[in-house]
């Protein structure tokens, strides 16, 4: 089977998903032609970007409004690249607002091109009306959770459930090796701070996480580390206290496994840390206008963290918006630092939630590749 598949990813998380999918597609059928718009990880898998999508990691209504002109240009460039490539299928990865506009542009210009959305909007948490909008724009959805499917059934959109991508990417970290490399003793307590992968997240959430770590350090002899993505490394350097050890992304699994407790912004990284058997305390903040609109009209879920959603209870303490304070975060993290039994209890609860999310199943990229290739076969 030959043909052309075009992958579209607008930010780092989508780039990683696209790279995983590209690798599995080529394994399944080396004759496939792959093209796309994405980042460095997709390029490493032989899918160099056909359009400039830099600066599209946008969070919230206000940030989106301010970036509207840039997004509009990127959408036009991406649609033009797709039409030039004339693919059989376009896979639109994550990034709801951007990929929706690309889908609508392609559908208007060439309805013969099949459109697949890989990771849908969080209709279970905010704006369930997006299910109808997406069903009108694409031919198939590859979603993460079983509980998403009923939102799309009334609109006739076929869905494939792939499980959380972080579960399929899991590789065990070597915490002991990380401690040895950094000169830490086996019994030293380590606080891992993860302030986010987007500029806006780091700006809004980072100060509370760093201040909480410093509060915990005040009465204890702890080490504080952070894993910084290359795209935000300089911002993290500017924000982190002087004594913090800043580690490269390539060491992230080892760092996650080495930590005694992690203070993290809500996101995919919370699943990655939990997979390494480390307890988490989670914080999150949006811009105040975005939060006011979301709280009043949009946000429907009891929890922001997927583990908590899957468990339908707060297995990892989370502090959102006004509750995201250094004092609250430090108070929740203190027993996890001081009491081995408390750590074990939370890790056990996190493991149960991970099992409900599909831990132990095939990687998400394999389910996604199967769905895309099935569409290729008609």
From TrEMBL:
Keyword Transcription regulation: no
Gene Ontology process terms (BP): lipid A biosynthetic process
Key words, A-Z: Glycosyltransferase, Lipid A biosynthesis, Lipid biosynthesis, Lipid metabolism, Transferase
Catalytic activity, as annotated: a lipid X + a UDP-2-N,3-O-bis[(3R)-3-hydroxyacyl]-alpha-D-glucosamine = a lipid A disaccharide + UDP + H(+)
EC number assigned by the record: 2.4.1.182
Annotated GO MF terms: lipid-A-disaccharide synthase activity; phospholipid binding
Annotated InterPro entries: Glyco_trans_19
GO cellular component: membrane
Keyword Lipid biosynthesis: yes
Enzyme class: transferase
PANTHER family documented for this protein: LIPID-A-DISACCHARIDE SYNTHASE (PTHR30372), LIPID-A-DISACCHARIDE SYNTHASE, MITOCHONDRIAL-RELATED (PTHR30372:SF4)
Function: Condensation of UDP-2,3-diacylglucosamine and 2,3-diacylglucosamine-1-phosphate to form lipid A disaccharide, a precursor of lipid A, a phosphorylated glycolipid that anchors the lipopolysaccharide to the outer membrane of the cell.
Sequence similarity: Belongs to the LpxB family.
Full protein name: Lipid-A-disaccharide synthase
Species: Terricaulis silvestris
Upper classification of the organism: Bacteria, Pseudomonadati, Pseudomonadota, Alphaproteobacteria, Caulobacterales
């Amino acid at each position: 089977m030959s043909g052309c598949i075009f992958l579209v990813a607008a930010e780092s998380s989508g780039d990683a998903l696209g790279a995983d999918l590209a690798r599995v597609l080529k394994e399944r059928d080396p004759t496939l032609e792959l093209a796309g718009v994405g980042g460095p990880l997709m390029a490493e898998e032989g899918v160099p970007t056909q359009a400039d999508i830099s600066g599209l990691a946008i969070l919230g209504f206000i940030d989106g409004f301010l970036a509207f002109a840039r997004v509009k240009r990127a959408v036009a460039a991406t649609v033009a690249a797709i039409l030039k490539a004339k693919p059989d299928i376009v896979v639109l990865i994550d990034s709801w607002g951007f990929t929706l506009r690309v889908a609508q542009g392609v559908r208007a210009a060439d309805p013969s091109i099949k459109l697949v959305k890989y990771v849908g909007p969080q209709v279970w948490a905010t704006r369930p009306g997006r299910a109808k909008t997406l069903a009108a724009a694409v031919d198939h959805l590859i979603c993460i959770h079983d509980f998403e499917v009923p939102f799309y059934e009334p609109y006739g959109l076929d869905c494939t459930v792939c499980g959380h991508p972080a579960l399929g990417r899991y590789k065990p970290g070597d915490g002991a090796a990380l401690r040895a490399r950094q000169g830490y003793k086996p019994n030293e307590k380590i606080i891992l701070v993860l302030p986010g992968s987007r500029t806006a997240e780091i700006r809004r959430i980072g100060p509370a996480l760093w201040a909480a770590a410093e509060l915990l350090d005040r009465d204890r002899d702890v080490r504080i580390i952070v894993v910084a993505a290359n795209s935000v490394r300089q911002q993290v350097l500017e924000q982190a206290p002087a004594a913090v050890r800043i580690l490269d992304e390539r060491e992230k699994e080892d760092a996650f496994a080495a930590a005694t407790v992690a203070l993290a912004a809500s996101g995919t990284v919370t699943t990655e840390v939990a997979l390494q058997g480390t307890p988490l305390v989670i914080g999150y903040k949006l811009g105040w206008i975005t939060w006011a609109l979301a709280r009043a009209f949009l946000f429907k879920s009891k929890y922001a963290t997927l583990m908590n959603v899957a468990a339908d209870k707060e297995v990892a303490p989370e502090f959102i918006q006004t509750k995201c304070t250094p004092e609250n975060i430090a108070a929740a993290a203190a027993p996890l630092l001081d009491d081995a039994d408390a750590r074990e209890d939370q890790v056990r609860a996190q493991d149960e939630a991970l099992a409900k999310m599909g831990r132990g199943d095939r990687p998400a990229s394999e389910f996604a590749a199967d769905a895309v290739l099935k569409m290729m076969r008609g």
